[in-house]
Amino acid sequence: MRKDAVEVMISLPNAHEPFEKPTLTGSLYFSSDNVDALWEKIKDKATIVYPIENFYYGMREFAVRDNNGYILQFGQEITDRRRYRSRRMIRLVSQGRIICSRTEVLKYRVG
To answer: Are 100 and 107 in contact (CB under 8 A)?
Structure first.
C-alpha cells in the first residue's frame, strides 16, 4: 500500500507462529502534514470513530474504522499553541480530570 512517499507493507502471519485470527487490540496511528485535508478527503467514505478535533496533548486528529474493524488514527501536531484550548480540554479541566497547567500538559504530552 503506498500514498505519496509513504509505503506500508502488510504481510501474512509468520509461518512459524500459530495463527487463529488477527489479534491487534490497539490502533494504528499515522502522522500527517495536513490532517485537515486528509479528513476532508475521507470523512464521507469511512466509518468515523471520532471526528477531527484538537486534543489537550497538542495533536489535531481523527479516527476511522477500516474494513477489518481496526481503528486508524490520523494526526498532526498543533504548532499554534493557542489552538490547544479545545472545548474538550476545558471540559476535562472543569470536571477535575486534568489537574495540571497547560505548560505541564505540553511538557508531558503523548503523541
So the answer is: no
Domains of the chain: 24-107 (3.10.180.10)
What CA–CA distance (Å, rounded) separates 86 from 30? 21
pLDDT, greater one: 90 or 64:
64
**C-alpha 96 chain-centroid distance:** 24
All three cell numbers of 61, joined, read 486528529
Nearest to 111 by CA among 29, 7, 27: 29
Query: DSSP H helical segments within 1-111, as ranges?
Result: 35-42, 87-94, 102-107
- pLDDT confidence of 6, banded at 50, 70, 90? confident
